[in-house]
Design a protein that fits this description.
This is YhfH family protein. The protein is α+β, with helices and mostly antiparallel strands and 41 residues long. The protein has one helix spanning 2-10; strands at 15-16, 23-24. It has one domain (1-41). The chain is built from one helix and two strands. A two-stranded antiparallel ribbon has the order 1-2. 2% of the residues are buried.
Amino acid sequence: MLENVLEFFRNLPKKNCATCGETIEEQHECYGNHCDKCSNL
């Protein structure tokens, strides 16, 4: 079962920033949709 969950996350497509379109390298499975440069946090 754990192997299936890991495979699911490995197969997720890379996310792109909603503002500039740059690929978000880290945590593409998270809910964020802005890269570090465009994030206002």
